[in-house]
């Protein structure tokens, strides 16, 4: 049956013009008449995808990019030592599970990009295979998704091959990273949601419930892998609200019927994902019972639940001459600490936030440092003594430290040093309302009035009313007010310079009572307290307290990732694929995360043309023109609209994020972009005769595969020639290094006509360095964790400054480069044309 | 007059002036026995959120001993504190000395004009008030009355807005009374701050827009045009006070778009040309004219401030050169090829340095170096190793004096070792991602290309000749494109503890900027014979754009933590206020916080508004029509506009990175009270007076077209019931009661410590109460009071 006839038959069958679902059904039924079943086609694309995605997955044989982190985390799970990461645990646990089954012992530490896997026999291939296979499955799922939303097989094939031959997906999804599980779960969710939205399904039937349930599972797994999954939740959520709105407006559905619709969705789309998310954390905590390097991110109560970190029970009542350790309440900086080092003159201070200047520290009296230190240590111990000029000491009696008492704190290990403050600015924080806190005192010196602090109990545990009246370990939260300056002992997460071992700064702050002036006593001992004295220990936080705390810490740390990275990028540069990420480079090979430019530009083009056309149509409607877009239009509007909404939800929020971002954050959005592109392709080829449609599909896929092959060497990290590399650089900012490759043209021209010079041609060791083995001249540069960007081509970075426009206009022409660009432009135009077909 | 040293300090950049200021400040403060903690805290507060710190340093440069005593005096005469700060702005305006502030100039200009009116004719040097302060105190009271007057004028406007929106007079009175008795609004407008002017202009905009909407049926009439224009102008005035005015611009913009959208509706029967006419009228009145108004204030600003002043350092060299007596033009030395210069890093103030020590072959972490001569950053300004000679490259090397300009490819010869600066593809000692800088022997053909650097100036200085002191530049390595970079980290022993220096691949980095400090063997002023006028000109637009971008970027940099800063979520219920001032002698304090009754009711009103709105939409979808059409229209359109205004004045703060304070919420609070009025009318008054605007159309329009569908007109009158009166009375009495109870904190009258304790609700951190610091105040001699 020809396309035209088909449409005719549809039109006759549709009686109600509003029921565009009929067209949808028709389109779905049409697939039954094609020579291959969907299952066969999906299997076929899976096989192709398997070859493309898993090709030489054992290469490179060393650590690539963020495998540094996620490989390490897998090791932590295997060793059961607690660690901290800003991402939820599910995907990491899956990777760890695979690693554990494959025999990874958790000893290899994944410290640097480029560390060798082979010698320590790390089973990295199964771990990569796991991620790679999850990546492979996104391809049949994209096929099914597009099919399920009622599009033609051709469009579904386009979507599948776009996902399959997207260089960025390939490069990223075969490594031990979280992106591939995340993308797998997101595409699974969307597939299930599309299946659920199939109008042929009877509400509340088994299939209907199953797909709804699977959507919920997919959502739960997505948010448990990375918080980006929340954007998927938003996408599905909005779609759900729209669906419910339609049902609510359908007066043939009774209110109870609507209630059932509503309850089902709440149950499967809200409750199920939340349970999965919580469950993932439950497993996470169970899997990590031992103390590890993530401890310091957590609160003391949390920390002491980890083995190796248990806080011993301590005496409750604090008396004068008690030896105590004092802990800061609101930061995890740890204990009030001092050691036999002094503040330094000529220390470094921060000015204006980012400028670091050397200023001789006028205020420093070179007194002993007072810091916060996060580990238990004898230098955290202080003896609490009576303060005030009119003090009466009676050393042989137990006298409780009461609220409002004036005390001195003597540092036990460097005695007679006392906790001291005075009108000088602290080493780092220069604000005038901060005072320096130091350790002051020497032999046979009684100390002065600047050693006096008043104890003010702010809060106390409700179980012990006495803790409000006098100091009790763990139960009373108190402030220490400096008598002379009227300031309160304070700390904040500001690190002292190197000379103070980068411990946390302690100051005395005036004015403004803020929570970070609160302290409590963790350890307490007194020689006169006998065995029967009351003991006290931390309350054990339940699972939910731990869960909430960890999520809060993840949130703040995530927002705090603001450092700059040589390869970070801002969201507006993603849809046009302005720049990639260098992930690994060694031995004249490199992996550079760069998308398939055709797919990036094509999907962006599809989304924006849809938005523009839609806007124009709405405007015309307001003016009373009827465009007769009718049933088919509404159907495409729903399908493309959903994908565009998905793209928007997965892209726009990044614009508001202040944290450090990378190109791979665009991948979920790109997935939706590809689905949108396929739907637009279907719309454009809708009127084509079948042969022409097949031709267009084949041509488009061939083109995409062609471009994929061009960039394959930097995707897989295989060999390439320098000329090919140079030719492939369509955009100036694609800064993969062509100098890495052999077969380079020795007379590559540069800005001046001076004789050219290549560092590689020098004798070792000049120009040759490597992380572990610097003297091997054949390893050109060492890749480093933060930036394996080690080679520069002449074009690199020239356009980055604000005056780039000026520079571009005035730069001497580079004939060879221009030629290259021209070549690419031509190819490009062709591609564009095809894409627009 | 500025002393020579002051001039020298200033032109070298904000950072350098730090040291002497710090000393000075320290000494001053010691002399007054560091007693005025509260004052300093306050000054700190003012300055962190109103200006940025380099400005403050420049200010304090002038702070003589006398002044500090004067400040002490200020401390004990209530409300005087911010005048010291604002006095500086006024003083700068009157002395015409350029200063920098993150806010647009209108509010400050208004204050200046007021000052001028009553006789600040510039003879009175505000910046060094010193002993004259007490004699001249009367003008301060007058100045304080300026924002207070604006604050007072807001009250009748609120009434008018409500009345013209068609609300019952009881609602209008209710709203106005509630608004009047808000402690935060009262407290804020009594101080010389910008907020009362901001709120005033914002309310003017809303009022004009309401009047404009009322006149919508008399389109293109004189009244219609007047109010349209008034909307545009007052909108621009709001924006000219603070950038927060952008929110009202957004609100008016959205309302206008929705208005135009309705006009376009085919059922309205308007021709497209007719709609276009509407569009053009709005475009002119709401875009073009406001732009000019906004620019006008900046034009005045630049016209007044034509002399060099404390704000110089914020601006580009080209901008500074337009200011009279600016030290840059006086100190700058033009650079020609073959000059020997020292190059200083802009932020760390270290000098580009080299010597004959080489890099160690192998670093501790196993990486290896090129073993070339070290190039680092040296903090010793007088070291001979800092001297570099600028060499010309290319073919056209001539013996003549050739100026060095932006974009030139140069070489730098290290004079002491006679080698050329270069960098190459070798990782630097501290940062493996960055390239190592070293030197190459002159005439080494192989390394020739690596010794080429491109000189790149800041955007605004592109056309100028390279000069010392003035021009910030980057040195871009030609073959690799890296930019010379330095940081405060030091090298270990092998590097003589010099500071790190390397090639940065990230070109846009503040730490890539350098200046030329000295040109060896030449003195400033040698070039004077050249026929170049001392004051350059720059077009107004260029100046404006530069200042505007600077304002925005500096505003975003106000992120320093402050004890009184608060998160937007904490504003809804005023759980945390700002302590503006306190005096331990009279036990009085000013604590800015809202009227809890009003704010909590406001929060409830938002919930009620959203709840009712949502419920109505959902019910309508099922075919239930529960609300009378005129009431619904009032609730949706008038209430909706207020809700939109509130949302736009509140929600954007959630995505702002800068430090936020309670007073940022005040414009939203103002709108909240009006929204409360709308909800009050809906809940307690039967019906609503509708339509609010006259429906008589102007004749020309009647002739032109007939609407295809008659507008949905239903008339209705609002009816007051006993409940209305009782509800209004109860709420208003509660509001006034709370206001009076909080008066001592708002007006800063003396309180006993029992009273303070009583006022510590919600954990407000008041002074002199239990649980707060007892400051030990040193005895003060009475002659300072």
TrEMBL record, chain A:
Span list, region Disordered: 751-837
Pathway involvement of the protein, from the record: Protein modification; protein glycosylation
Catalytic activity: a di-trans,poly-cis-dolichyl beta-D-mannosyl phosphate + L-threonyl-[protein] = 3-O-(alpha-D-mannosyl)-L-threonyl-[protein] + a di-trans,poly-cis-dolichyl phosphate + H(+); a di-trans,poly-cis-dolichyl beta-D-mannosyl phosphate + L-seryl-[protein] = 3-O-(alpha-D-mannosyl)-L-seryl-[protein] + a di-trans,poly-cis-dolichyl phosphate + H(+)
Organism from which the protein derives: Umbelopsis vinacea
Annotated protein name in UniProt: Dolichyl-phosphate-mannose--protein mannosyltransferase
Ranges annotated as biased composition (Acidic residues): 815-837
Compartment(s) of residence: Endoplasmic reticulum membrane
Record-level GO cellular component terms: endoplasmic reticulum membrane
Keywords: Endoplasmic reticulum, Glycoprotein, Glycosyltransferase, Membrane, Repeat, Transferase, Transmembrane, Transmembrane helix
UniProt family annotation: Belongs to the glycosyltransferase 39 family.
GO molecular function: dolichyl-phosphate-mannose-protein mannosyltransferase activity
E.C. number: 2.4.1.109
Automatic annotation (TrEMBL), chain B:
Pathway participation: Protein modification; protein glycosylation
Family: Belongs to the glycosyltransferase 39 family.
Main location: endoplasmic reticulum
Keywords: Endoplasmic reticulum, Glycosyltransferase, Membrane, Repeat, Transferase, Transmembrane, Transmembrane helix
Designated name of the protein: Dolichyl-phosphate-mannose--protein mannosyltransferase
Xref: InterPro entries: ArnT-like_N (IPR003342), MIR_dom_sf (IPR036300), MIR_motif (IPR016093), PMT-like (IPR027005), PMT_4TMC (IPR032421)
PANTHER family noted in UniProt: DOLICHYL-PHOSPHATE-MANNOSE--PROTEIN MANNOSYLTRANSFERASE (PTHR10050), PROTEIN O-MANNOSYL-TRANSFERASE 1 (PTHR10050:SF51)
Gene Ontology molecular-function annotations: dolichyl-phosphate-mannose-protein mannosyltransferase activity
UniProt GO cellular component terms: endoplasmic reticulum membrane
Role played: Transfers mannose from Dol-P-mannose to Ser or Thr residues on proteins.
Localization per Swiss-Prot or TrEMBL: Endoplasmic reticulum membrane
Region Disordered, residue ranges: 1-22
Top-level taxon of the source organism: Eukaryota
Catalytic activity: a di-trans,poly-cis-dolichyl beta-D-mannosyl phosphate + L-seryl-[protein] = 3-O-(alpha-D-mannosyl)-L-seryl-[protein] + a di-trans,poly-cis-dolichyl phosphate + H(+); a di-trans,poly-cis-dolichyl beta-D-mannosyl phosphate + L-threonyl-[protein] = 3-O-(alpha-D-mannosyl)-L-threonyl-[protein] + a di-trans,poly-cis-dolichyl phosphate + H(+)
Domain MIR: 332-393, 401-458
Organism: Umbelopsis vinacea
TM spans (from-to): 141-161, 192-210, 225-258, 279-300, 596-615, 635-653, 665-685, 725-747
Known EC number: 2.4.1.109
Topology of the protein relative to the lipid bilayer: Multi-pass membrane protein
């Amino acid at each position: 049956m020809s396309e035209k006839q088909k449409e005719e038959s549809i039109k006759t069958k549709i009686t109600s013009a509003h029921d565009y679902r009929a067209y949808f059904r028709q389109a779905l039924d049409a697939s039954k008449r094609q020579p291959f079943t969907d299952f066969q086609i999906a299997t076929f694309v899976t096989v192709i995808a398997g070859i493309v995605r898993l090709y030489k997955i054992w290469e490179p044989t060393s650590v690539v990019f963020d495998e540094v982190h996620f490989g390490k985390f897998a090791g932590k799970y295997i060793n059961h030592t607690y660690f901290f990461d800003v991402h939820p645990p599910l995907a990491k646990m899956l990777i760890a599970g695979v690693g554990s089954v494959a025999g990874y012992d958790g000893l290899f530490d994944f410290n640097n990009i480029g560390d060798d896997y082979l010698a320590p026999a790390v089973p990295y291939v199964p771990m990569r295979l796991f991620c790679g296979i999850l990546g492979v499955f996104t391809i049949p799922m994209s096929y099914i998704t597009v099919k399920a939303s009622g599009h033609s097989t051709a469009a579904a094939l386009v979507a599948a091959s776009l996902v399959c031959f997207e260089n960025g997906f390939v490069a990223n999804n075969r490594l031990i990273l979280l992106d591939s599980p995340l993308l797998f779960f997101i595409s699974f969710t969307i597939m299930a949601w599309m299946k659920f939205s199939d109008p042929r399904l009877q509400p509340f039937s088994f299939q209907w419930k199953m797909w709804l349930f699977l959507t919920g599972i997919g959502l739960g797994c997505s948010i448990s892998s990375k918080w980006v999954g929340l954007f998927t939740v938003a996408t599905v959520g909005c779609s759900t609200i729209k669906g419910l709105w339609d049902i609510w407006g359908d007066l043939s559905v009774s209110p109870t019927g609507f209630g059932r619709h509503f309850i089902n969705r709440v149950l499967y789309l809200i409750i199920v994902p939340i349970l999965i998310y919580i469950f993932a954390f439950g497993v996470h905590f169970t899997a990590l019972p031992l103390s590890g390097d993530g401890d310091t991110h957590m609160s003391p109560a949390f920390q002491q639940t980890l083995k190796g970190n248990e806080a011993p029970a301590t005496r409750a009542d604090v008396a004068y001459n008690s030896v105590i350790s004092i802990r800061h309440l609101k930061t995890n900086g740890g204990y009030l600490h001092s050691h036999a080092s002094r503040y330094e003159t000529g220390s470094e201070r921060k000015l204006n936030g980012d400028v670091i200047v050397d200023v001789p520290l006028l205020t420093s009296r070179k007194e002993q440092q007072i810091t916060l230190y996060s580990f238990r240590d004898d230098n955290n111990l202080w003896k609490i003594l009576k303060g005030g000029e009119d003090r009466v000491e009676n050393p042989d009696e137990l006298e409780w430290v009461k609220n409002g008492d004036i005390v001195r704190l003597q540092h036990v290990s460097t005695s007679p040093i006392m906790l001291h403050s005075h009108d000088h600015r602290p080493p780092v924080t220069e604000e005038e309302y901060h005072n320096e806190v130091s350790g002051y005192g020497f032999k046979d010196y009684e100390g002065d009035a600047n050693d006096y602090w008043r104890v003010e109990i702010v809060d106390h545990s409700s179980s012990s009313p006495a803790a409000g009246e006098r100091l009790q370990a763990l139960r009373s939260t108190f402030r220490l007010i400096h008598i002379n300056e009227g300031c309160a002992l304070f700390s904040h997460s500001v690190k002292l310079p190197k000379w103070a071992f980068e411990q946390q700064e302690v100051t005395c702050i005036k004015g403004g009572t803020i929570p970070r002036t609160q302290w409590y006593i963790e350890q307490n001992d007194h020689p006169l307290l006998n065995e029967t004295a009351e003991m006290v220990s931390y309350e054990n936080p339940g699972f939910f307290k731990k869960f909430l705390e960890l999520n809060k810490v993840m949130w703040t740390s995530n927002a705090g990732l603001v450092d700059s990275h040589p390869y970070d990028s801002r969201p507006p540069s993603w849809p046009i694929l302005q720049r990639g990420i260098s992930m690994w480079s060694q031995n004249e090979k490199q992996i550079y995360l760069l998308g398939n430019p055709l797919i990036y530009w094509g999907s962006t083009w599809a989304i924006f043309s849809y938005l523009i056309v839609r806007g124009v149509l709405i405007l015309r409607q307001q003016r009373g023109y009827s465009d007769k877009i009718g049933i088919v239009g509404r159907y495409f509007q729903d399908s493309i609209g959903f994908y565009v909404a998905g793209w928007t939800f997965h892209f726009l929020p990044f614009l508001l994020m202040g944290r450090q971002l990378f190109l791979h954050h665009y991948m979920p959005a790109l997935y939706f972009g590809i689905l949108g592109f396929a739907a637009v392709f279907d719309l454009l080829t809708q009127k084509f005769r079948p042969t022409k449609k097949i031709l267009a599909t084949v041509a488009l896929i061939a083109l995409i595969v062609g471009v994929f092959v061009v960039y394959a060497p930097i995707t897989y990290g295989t060999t390439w020639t320098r000329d090919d590399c140079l030719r492939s650089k369509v955009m100036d900012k694609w800064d993969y290094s062509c100098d890495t490759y052999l077969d380079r043209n020795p007379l590559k021209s540069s800005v001046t006509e001076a004789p050219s010079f290549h560092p590689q041609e020098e004798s070792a060791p000049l120009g040759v360095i490597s992380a572990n083995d610097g003297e091997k001249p054949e390893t050109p540069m060492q890749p480093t964790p933060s930036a394996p960007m080690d080679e520069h081509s002449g074009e690199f970075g020239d356009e980055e400054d604000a005056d780039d426009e000026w520079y571009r206009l005035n730069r001497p022409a580079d004939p060879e480069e221009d030629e290259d660009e021209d070549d690419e432009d031509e190819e490009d135009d062709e591609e564009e044309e095809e894409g627009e077909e | 007059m500025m002393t020579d040293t002051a001039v020298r300090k200033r032109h070298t950049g904000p950072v350098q002036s730090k040291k002497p200021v710090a000393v000075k400040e320290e000494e001053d403060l010691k002399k007054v026995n560091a007693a005025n903690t509260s004052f300093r805290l306050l000054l700190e507060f003012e300055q962190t959120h109103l200006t940025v710190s380099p400005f403050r340093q420049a200010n304090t440069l002038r702070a003589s001993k006398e002044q500090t005593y004067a400040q002490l005096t200020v401390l004990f005469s209530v409300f005087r504190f911010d005048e010291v700060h604002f006095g500086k702005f006024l003083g700068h305006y009157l002395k015409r000395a350029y200063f920098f502030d993150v806010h647009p100039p209108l509010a400050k200009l208004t204050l200046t004009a007021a000052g001028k009116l009553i006789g600040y004719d510039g003879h009175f040097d505000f910046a060094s008030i010193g002993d004259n302060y007490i004699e001249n105190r009367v003008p301060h009271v007058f100045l304080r009355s300026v924002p207070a007057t604006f604050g007072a004028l807001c009250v009748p406007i609120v009434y008018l807005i409500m009345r013209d929106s068609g609300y019952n007079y009881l609602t209008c009175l209710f709203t106005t009374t509630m608004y009047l008795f808000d402690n935060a609004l009262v407290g804020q407008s009594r101080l010389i701050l910008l907020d009362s002017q901001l709120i005033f202009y914002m309310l003017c905009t809303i009022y004009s827009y309401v009047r404009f909407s009322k006149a919508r049926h008399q389109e293109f009439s004189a009244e219609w045009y007047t109010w349209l224009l008034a909307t545009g102008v007052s909108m621009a005035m709001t924006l000219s006070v603070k950038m927060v005015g952008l929110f009202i611009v957004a609100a008016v913009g959205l309302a206008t778009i929705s208005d135009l959208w309705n006009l376009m509706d085919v059922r309205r029967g308007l021709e497209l040309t007719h709609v276009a006419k509407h569009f053009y009228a709005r475009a002119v009145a709401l875009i073009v004219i406001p732009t000019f108004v906004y620019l006008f204030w900046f034009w005045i600003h630049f016209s007044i401030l034509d002399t060099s002043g404390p704000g110089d350092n914020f601006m580009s060299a080209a901008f500074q050169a337009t200011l009279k007596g600016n030290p840059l033009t006086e100190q700058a030395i033009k650079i020609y090829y073959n000059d020997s210069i020292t190059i200083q890093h802009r932020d760390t103030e270290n000098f580009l340095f080299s010597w004959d020590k080489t890099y160690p072959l192998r670093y501790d972490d196993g990486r290896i170096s090129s073993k070339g001569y070290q190039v680092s950053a040296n903090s010793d300004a007088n070291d001979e190793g800092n001297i570099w000679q600028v060499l010309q490259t290319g073919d056209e090397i001539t013996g003549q004096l050739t100026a060095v300009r932006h974009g030139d490819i140069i070489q730098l010869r290290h004079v002491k070792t006679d080698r050329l600066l270069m960098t190459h593809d070798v990782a630097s000692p501290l940062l493996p991602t960055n390239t190592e800088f070293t030197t190459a022997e002159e005439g080494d053909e192989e390394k020739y290309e690596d010794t080429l650097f491109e000189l790149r100036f800041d955007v605004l200085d592109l056309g100028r000749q390279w000069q010392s002191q003035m021009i910030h530049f980057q040195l871009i390595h030609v073959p690799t494109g890296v930019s010379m970079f330095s940081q405060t980290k030091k090298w270990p022993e092998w590097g003589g503890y010099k500071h790190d220096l390397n090639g940065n691949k990230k070109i846009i980095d503040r730490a890539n900027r350098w200046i030329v400090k000295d040109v060896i063997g030449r003195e400033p002023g040698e070039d004077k014979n050249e026929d170049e006028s001392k004051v350059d000109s720059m077009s107004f637009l260029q100046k404006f754009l530069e200042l505007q971008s600077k304002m925005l970027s500096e505003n975003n940099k106000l992120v320093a933590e402050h004890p009184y800063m608060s998160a937007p979520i904490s504003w809804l219920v005023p759980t945390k206020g700002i302590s503006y001032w306190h005096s331990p002698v009279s036990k009085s304090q000013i604590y800015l916080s809202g009227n809890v009754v009003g704010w909590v009711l406001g929060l409830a009103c938002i919930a009620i508004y959203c709840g009712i709105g949502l419920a109505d939409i959902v019910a309508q979808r099922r075919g239930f029509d529960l609300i009378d059409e005129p009431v619904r229209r009032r609730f949706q359109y008038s209430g909706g506009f207020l809700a939109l205004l509130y949302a736009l004045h509140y929600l954007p703060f959630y995505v702002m990175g800068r430090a936020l304070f309670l007073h940022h919420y005040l414009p939203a609070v103002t709108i909240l009270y009006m929204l409360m009025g709308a909800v009050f009318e809906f809940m307690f008054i039967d019906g609503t007076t509708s339509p609010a605007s006259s429906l008589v159309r102007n004749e020309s329009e009647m002739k032109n077209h007939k609407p295809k569908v008659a507008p949905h007109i239903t008339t209705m009158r609002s009816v007051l019931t006993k409940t209305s009166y009782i509800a209004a009375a109860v709420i208003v009495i509660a509001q006034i009661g709370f206001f009076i109870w909080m008066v001592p904190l708002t007006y800063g009258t003396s309180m006993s410590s029992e009273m303070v304790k009583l006022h510590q609700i919600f954990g407000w951190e008041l002074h002199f109460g239990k649980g707060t610091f007892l400051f030990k105040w040193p005895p003060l001699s009475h002659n300072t009071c």
